[in-house]
């Protein structure tokens, strides 16, 4: 097993005002659960090993990623590392709401979705799966603005933090209302927010990211590659297997429309003279890293080759203000995919 960590091109940022140091590129563990098509655990372990050896020290997972499979693979792999390496790594996981609509509707009561008993039971399961006594970061996997004025689930997490079960508290934004966390940040109820911020989805730059910077809230960016759409690997007629969640994400004419938009981004990169140094995926990652409020950008890595490519992208020079201004024109007000638009 490779455990050496040479000088890495990946920068380190603080996860919030008083948070721990995290790599500016993080390891996204969704595919390790098997919902992005067939995934061999040995490939998952190899990807983790390559990422860690390359300087990545932040790993994000969730119980919903293969009914705990991703958590187990990560925990088993980390348990084999020397203590001096393991103690430098940080793992974030999530507690989903109990059974009901996803994301929670405006009519959902927190008592039915995130009761104190449910949260405590779920956190104990996370601790067991990850083979630890304290979670570095526990995120509620989704939220609704309906609970902002009575955010009892977050107060339960505060108690668990006082009990030493959790170090940091976070919320993953619901895609259709990411700004619902602005009030939570201003009220000091979260240490970290996990958001969607990419070449297509730029709304967080309006208020969410400035408020995070103002309040010292850590920011994790997910979906920087738009679930693979921004890599340029998939043509307009590409179809994903039924066991890959993207078969639904890019259902109907969505792949066609995505490919058309990606072609426009590619043309801009060529016009800017960047195509020799930045692939489409590189440009997408660098854009997601571009706002000063962003602590880390998590990207899915299914094998060592993907890990190496993502690490190389993170090490590329930051975009100039002029390049960022040009790329901002690709904001796409498409609504939320699962909303049927």
Q: Give the DSSP E fraction (strand runs of 2 or more residues).
A: 5-15%
Count every beta strand, where a strand is a DSSP E run of 2 or more residues. Answer: 10
Relative helix content: 25-40%
The CATH topology annotation reads as TIM Barrel
The CATH C-level class name: Alpha Beta
Unreliable stretches covering 5 or more consecutive residues? none
Termini, distance in Å? 46 Å
> Would you tell me the structural class of the helices and strands?
alpha/beta
What is the H/E string?
EEEHEHHEHHEHEHEHEHHHEHH
Report on the biggest sheet: 8 strands, parallel, barrel
Question: Rg to the nearest angstrom?
Answer: 19 Å
GO molecular function: oxidoreductase activity
Protein name: Aryl-alcohol dehydrogenase-like predicted oxidoreductase
InterPro entries: AKR, NAD(P)_OxRdtase_dom_sf, NADP_OxRdtase_dom
Domain NADP-dependent oxidoreductase: 25-330
Describe the model.
By secondary structure, the protein is an alpha/beta fold. The protein has one domain: TIM Barrel, CATH 3.20.20. Helix content is 35%, strand content 14%. The protein has helices at residues 41-53, 69-79, 83-86, 110-113, 116-129, 152-162, 181-186, 208-215, 246-249, 254-271, 280-288, 304-314, 321-327, and strands at residues 12-14, 21-23, 25-28, 58-60, 90-95, 135-140, 166-172, 192-196, 218-222, 296-300. The chain has an 8-stranded parallel β-barrel, surrounded by 4 helices. It has a two-stranded antiparallel sheet with strand order 1-2. Strand 3 (25-28), helix 1 (41-53) and strand 4 (58-60) form a beta-alpha-beta unit. The longest helix is centred in the last third of the chain and has 18 residues, at 254-271. The N and C termini lie far apart (46 Å). The relative contact order is 0.15. The mean pLDDT is 95.
């Amino acid at each position: 097993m490779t455990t050496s960590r040479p000088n890495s091109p990946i920068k380190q940022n603080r996860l919030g005002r008083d948070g721990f140091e995290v790599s500016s590129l993080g390891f996204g563990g969704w595919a390790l659960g098997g919902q992005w098509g067939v995934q061999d655990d040995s490939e998952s372990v190899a990807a983790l090993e390559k990422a860690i050896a390359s300087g990545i020290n932040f790993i994000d997972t969730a119980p919903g990623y293969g009914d705990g499979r991703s958590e187990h693979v990560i925990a088993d792999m980390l348990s084999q590392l020397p203590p001096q390496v393991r103690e430098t790594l940080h793992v974030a996981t999530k507690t989903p709401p109990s059974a009901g609509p996803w994301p929670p509707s405006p009519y959902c009561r927190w008592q039915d979705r995130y009761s104190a008993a449910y949260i405590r039971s779920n956190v104990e399961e996370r601790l067991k799966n990850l083979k630890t006594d304290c979670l570095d970061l526990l995120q509620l996997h989704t939220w609704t603005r309906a609970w902002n004025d009575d955010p009892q689930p977050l107060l339960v997490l505060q108690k668990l933090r006082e009990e030493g079960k959790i170090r940091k508290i976070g919320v993953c934004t619901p895609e259709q209302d990411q700004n619902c966390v602005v009030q939570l940040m201003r009220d000091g109820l979260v240490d970290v927010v996990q958001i969607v911020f990419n070449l297509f989805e730029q709304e967080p730059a309006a208020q969410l990211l400035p408020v995070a910077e103002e309040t010292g809230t850590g920011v994790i960016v997910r979906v920087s590659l738009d679930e693979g759409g921004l890599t340029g690997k998939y043509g307009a007629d590409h179809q994903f297997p039924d066991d890959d969640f993207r078969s639904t994400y890019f259902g109907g004419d969505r792949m066609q429309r995505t490919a058309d938009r990606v072609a426009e981004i590619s043309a801009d990169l060529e016009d800017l003279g960047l195509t020799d140094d930045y692939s489409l995926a590189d440009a997408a990652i660098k854009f997601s890293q571009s706002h000063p409020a962003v602590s880390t950008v998590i990207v899915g890595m299914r094998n060592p080759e993907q890990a190496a490519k993502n690490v190389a992208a993170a090490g590329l020079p930051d975009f100039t203000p002029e390049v960022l201004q040009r790329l901002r024109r690709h904001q796409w007000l498409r609504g939320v995919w699962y909303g049927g638009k």
